Amino acid sequence: MPHPMQGDVLVIAEHWKGEPEGVTLQMLTKGRELADSGGVGLAVLVLGHGLDDVVEVLRGKGMDTIWVLDDPALARAGGGVEAHAIAEAVRAIDPGLILIGYSLVGMELAPAIAVGLGVTAMTNCVDVGIEDGAVVVTRPFFDGTQHAKIVLEGKGPPLVALQGGATPTVGLGATEVAVRPVAVDLSAVPARGQVLEVIEEAVSDVDITKAEIIVAVGRGIGGKEKIAVIEELTQALGGLMACSRPLVDLGWLGRERQVGASGKSVAPKVYLACGISGASQHLSGMSDSRLIVAINKDPNAPIFQVAHYGVVGDLLEIVPALTAEARKVAG
Amino acid sequence: MKIVVCCKAVPGAVTDVEVAPGGKALQFQSQFQAMNECDEYALEEACALKRAYGGEITALAMGPITTQDILYLALAKGADQALRIDVRVQDPQVASTVLAAALGKMEFDLVLTGTQSRDTLASFVGVAAAARLGLPFAFAVTEVEKDGEQSIKVRKELGGGRFADIRLGLPALLCVQTGIQPLNFVPPGRMLRARAQPIRSLSLTELGLTEEEIVPRGYRYQSVSPPERVGRVRFLEGATPEIAAALLARIRAAL
Ligand SMILES: Cc1cc2nc3c(=O)[nH]c(=O)nc-3n(C[C@H](O)[C@H](O)[C@H](O)COP(=O)(O)OP(=O)(O)OC[C@H]3O[C@@H](n4cnc5c(N)ncnc54)[C@H](O)[C@@H]3O)c2cc1C
Ligand SMILES: Nc1ncnc2c1ncn2[C@@H]1O[C@H](COP(=O)(O)O)[C@@H](O)[C@H]1O
C-alpha cells in the first residue's frame, strides 16, 4: 500500500570535469518540487575521486544536503564497483526516493543499484510525482507510442531513472546546504572491471552544433538513396543535415551528424525532424531547439510531444513540396 | 569463446493497449513479432567474435512458443544452438531474474544482450541479470576484443561524444549497442535449414523457480494511453502545397 514518503529525495549526480551534467540539474529541479510536496529534504550524492570542483558548483543549486563519497578506488572503477558504492551509500543515507538520470551512465548503473538494494526500479521515466503519498511515474512503452502511469508501492525507496530533457531546469535559489562525507568500504569489492581510458570524440568538419537550421532525417526515409530528398531541402533552406542513430548504424550517414544521447546535443533556431519517431535518446539531444517542426506519418509519434508544428503525412511528399516552396521564395 | 546471446521477440505495431486486470501488466494486440533490433546486433557481434576466436554461440530467448521464430532466425544467422525459456514475462525485473536463473545453469565466457527492448524500453534486463549473477558488465558496448586468456577489452559509450575503454574479467556480460557490426542479410535457404533444427525449451520448474517468484512486485499500472500532448504542437492540415507554404512561413519567422 502507498505510504507517505519518509526520508529525503536523493539525486545521484552525474558529472564530468568538475561540472554536473544537464540531467543532474534537471533532477535537482524536479527533486525540489517532490521534496517540497512530500515535506522532506532534497539531497544529492556525488561520487568519484577529487570532487571539490563539482561540489562547489553544486552548492546553492537548491538542495539541503550534499553527500560526498570520495574514494581513490572510484577514479577508474567499472560499473560494478560504482553501483556497489552507490547502493551502500544509499543504505547509509536512507532516502525516501532515489532519482538517477536515464543517461548512458544511468542506464548502466540503475539496474545494478536496484538489484543491490532489492528495490523497485522504473527506468526511462518522463515524469515523476507524488499522489496520495505514493510515488507515481509516467513512462513510455511500445516505441513511445503509449505512455503508462504507474504507482510505485514496494518496500524501500523506489529508484526512478528520469529522461534527460523531461523536466526543465529552473535556477534554484541558494539554500543552506550541508556538505557531508559518506564512507563506504570498497576494499573488499572485487574489481573485475577497470576503466583504462576515457576518450572524447574529435571535432569534425561538419559541426551540427553550430547550425541555425537543422534538417534531421530518420529511419522513416526508407532507403539510403532517398536521403537526397532531405539534402535538397537542407540546401534550399541553407541549413545542415543531421540524423537519428539508425541511419548511422546502417552506415547511411556519418556519426558526426547523429543527434541524441549518444550523439550530439543541438539547439538550433529551427529543427525540422523528418521521419523521426522521437525516442527519448533522440529527444534529449534536440528538445531545447527554438522551433521544432516534425513530419511523421504516425500522429502518435512521440516527436510530436516536443514539436511546435507538426505535419502528419508522408515525408516523401511533404519534403519535396517544401523544397520547391523554399526555392520559389529564394529565387 | 562460449557466447550466449539473449534475444527477445518483440511486437511490431500494437493496438488496443490496456492495463490488464490486476494492474500488473499491459495487454495489447499486435500483428507480428520480430527480433529486437539491438539483439540482432548482439548476435552479429557474437558471430564476429566466433570468427575471430572460435567457440560456440547459444541464442537464448524467454517467451511463449511463438518466440521460436526469432530463435530460428538466430540459428540462420550463425548461432550453433538455441534455447527457449517457456515463460511469458513482461516485467524487466522479473525477466532479469528468470534469465539469470537460466544463465546460472549454462556454461559461458561471455553473455551478450541488447541495450533496450522496443516494447518495454527499459534498458534494464542485461545489467540486472549480470548483477544477480555477480558478473562484471558494460553497457552500450561498441567494440569488443580479447585481451589475454581471461579478460576482454571493450569500448562503451558514455554519451555526449565520450567513450570509455575498459577491461573486464571473464565471464562477463555486455549490453551491445546498435551499429557494432553491419547486419548481414539471411538468405531464405539458410532460414529453411534453420527451421529443421531442434530448439530446446526449459520450464520455470526446470529453472528452479516458482510462479510466485515471477509475479511483478512493487508497482501497479494505473492507466495507459497515447502520450498526452503536453507540448504545444499545432498540426498543419490541408493540401500539400498549402502545408509547404505555411511551414516555410513559420520557419522563416523563426530565423
Ligand atoms: C543507449 C541508447 C542510446 C541511443 N542513442 C541515440 C542517439 O543518440 N540518437 C538517436 O537518434 N537515437 C538513439 N538511440 C536509439 C533510439 O532509441 C531510437 O531507436 C532511434 O532514435 C529511432 O530512430 P528513428 O526515429 O529514425 O527510427 P524509428 O523509431 O524507426 O522511427 C521512424 C519514424 O518514421 C515514421 N515514418 C515512416 N515512414 C514515413 C514516411 N514515409 N513519412 C513520414 N514519416 C514516416 C514512422 O512513423 C516512425 O515514427 C539510442 C538507443 C539506446 C538504447
Ligand atoms: N524475454 C527476453 N528474452 C531474451 N532476452 C531478453 C528478454 N527480455 C530482455 N532481454 C534482453 O535484455 C535486453 C534489454 O531489455 P530491456 O531491459 O527490456 O530493455 C534486450 O535487448 C535483450 O537482449
Tell me briefly what this model is.
The complex is a heterodimer of chains A (331) and B (255). Chain A is α/β, with parallel strands linked by helices and 331 residues long.
Describe the structure in your own words.
The complex is a heterodimer of chains A (331) and B (255). Chain A has 331 residues and is an alpha/beta fold. Chain A folds into 2 domains: 9-181, HUPs (Rossmann fold, 3-Layer(aba) Sandwich), CATH 3.40.50.620; 208-330, TPP-binding domain (Rossmann fold). Chain A has helices at 22-38, 52-58, 79-93, 104-117, 227-237, 245-249, 280-283, 315-330, and strands at 9-12, 15-16, 19-20, 42-48, 65-70, 97-101, 121-125, 127-131, 134-141, 146-152, 159-162, 178-181, 193-200, 213-217, 240-243, 270-274, 291-296, 309-312. A 7-stranded parallel β-sheet of chain A has the order 7-11-6-1-4-5-12, with helices on both faces. Chain A has a 5-stranded parallel β-sheet with strand order 15-14-16-17-18. In chain A, strand 4, helix 2 (52-58) and strand 5 (65-70) form a beta-alpha-beta unit. Chain A is elongated, with a radius of gyration of 22 Å. Chain A starts with 8 loop residues before the first strand and ends with a helix. The model of chain A has no long low-confidence stretch (mean pLDDT 93). Chain B is an alpha/beta fold and 255 residues long. Chain B has a single domain, classed as Rossmann fold. Chain B has helices spanning 37-53, 68-77, 92-104, 125-133, 188-195, 240-253, and strands at 2-6, 9-11, 14-19, 26-30, 33-35, 56-62, 81-85, 110-113, 137-146, 151-159, 162-169, 172-176, 200-202, 219-225, 234-235. In chain B, a hairpin with a 6-residue loop joins strand 3 and strand 4. Chain B is globular. The N and C termini of chain B lie far apart (56 Å). The mean pLDDT of chain B is 96. At the A-B interface, helix 3, helix 4, strand 7, strand 9 and strand 10 of A face strand 3, helix 3, helix 4, strand 9 and strand 10 of B. Strand 10 (146-152) of chain A pairs antiparallel with strand 14 (219-225) of chain B. The structure holds flavin-adenine dinucleotide and adenosine monophosphate. Flavin-adenine dinucleotide sits between chains A (104, 107, 143, 218-220, 222, 244-246, 258-263, 275-277, 279, 281-282, 285, 295-298, 301, 314-316) and B (115-116, 123, 140).
